[in-house]
Design goal:
heterodimer; A: 81 residues; mainly alpha; flat; B: 270 residues; alpha/beta; eight-stranded parallel sheet; 8 strands; 44% helix; 15% strand; globular
Chain lengths: 81, 270
């Protein structure tokens, strides 16, 4: 079913919330950088980077695809392992 | 608007929460048995917990005009010890016969281990042998997709399963599609930092429709909000969705699902 709002209306409503989340995310990354140690090889940072690339690209189902980045893979033969 | 929270852990909440929920229009809650934040030391701890869910919480809710129903089961987090789980499962029939009990739940997987699967298969067999409805917990975070697909595989392999009497709960964007495609009810849990939010729940309604969809707070002892269903109602109204659609999701759908339980009787509040 369609959302009853226009795209411009959605953007108007969500702009400040999205802006705040982006700034919060930037601040979290800055905080990690400022802290002692170097977690550059941490897989979680790689998951962040994959997510940023996905958000910057066009295409549908971004939320579903970001979820996939943070998910263990499914093996349909799991019952035999 | 009257609403139902079909999945909430009131045993971990205060009486003030009952009052706030009733004030906001809550008329009925479903409370699945779950992990109380610590592993229980013996089967008697479970026995007393099941008594709490079927006796004390029913009265506490009724004091606020809220009808309380429970689901009986052993949660996935405590299901790793198969022998202990069998002791708990042996106590379930007594409680499944109680008048406020909806069926077997919440059961499912946590870390998707072999032992969890063994216990889950025995719980499913108990439920199907008694013609009970089932409510499934799906794992957290990175384990959710794999665990959800494993649960769907297990259910698909059992020809006794009536999919219209099963809810797969805690669905998110990456798991809701296969759940609905295979004919099950899908639950969406709205949490502050994990699972979904009221906004994302509304998104999923717009993408997948309202049929066989339940929204809940799953509020418990952790970061959670017993007012999550009213927050969902608010978000849907902000998007100008019709009241009839909102009512279907927060009231008519849970009644339709619960009505398939032989113990369920509901008198509408006028």
């Amino acid at each position: 079913m369609p959302i009853p709002l226009s795209a411009s209306e959605v953007l108007d409503r969500e702009f400040l919330a999205a802006r705040a989340k982006l700034i919060e995310l930037a601040a979290i990354l800055d905080r990690i950088d400022r802290a002692e140690g170097d977690p550059a090889d941490d897989d979680r940072l790689a998951q962040f980077r994959q997510s940023f690339e996905l958000l910057a690209a066009d295409g549908p189902d971004r939320a579903e695809r970001v979820q996939a980045i943070f998910s263990l893979p499914y093996d349909e033969n799991w019952q035999q392992s | 608007m009257h609403f139902i929270d079909p999945h909430i852990h009131m045993a971990a909440r205060t009486t003030d929460d009952f009052r706030r929920m009733a004030t906001a229009g809550c008329v009925l809650v479903g409370e699945p048995a779950f992990w109380m934040g610590y592993d229980r030391s013996g089967v008697n701890s479970f026995y007393d917990y099941f008594r709490q869910l079927t006796e004390w919480e029913v009265k506490r809710a009724a004091n606020h005009g809220i009808q309380h129903h429970a689901w009986m089961g052993i949660n996935a987090k405590e299901a790793e010890d198969v022998g202990f789980s069998r002791e708990v499962i042996a106590t379930l029939p007594e409680f499944l016969d109680r008048p406020s009990v909806l069926g077997v739940g919440e059961i499912g997987l946590h870390k998707n281990t072999k032992n969890e699967v063994t216990t889950l298969l025995e719980l499913i067999d108990l439920a199907l042998g008694r013609d009970e409805q089932m409510l499934f917990h799906t794992p957290h975070l990175e384990d959710k997709y794999l665990g959800t697909r494993m649960i769907l595989d297990i259910l698909r392999a059992d020809t006794r399963v009536d999919r219209t009497r099963v809810c797969i709960d805690h669905c998110e964007e990456h798991t809701i599609r296969p759940v609905l495609d295979e004919g099950y009810w899908a639950g969406i849990t709205m949490y502050p930092t994990s699972k979904a939010t009221p906004e994302r729940a509304a998104d999923m309604v717009e993408i997948y429709g309202a049929d066989r969809l339940l929204v809940n707070s799953s509020a418990d002892w952790g970061p959670s909000d017993p007012m999550a269903v009213p927050a969902f109602i608010y978000e849907m109204r902000r998007r100008r969705h019709p009241e009839s659609l909102i009512r279907q999701i927060v009231y008519e759908n849970p009644l339709k699902f619960f009505n398939q339980s032989r113990n369920f009787k509901f008198t509408a509040v006028v």
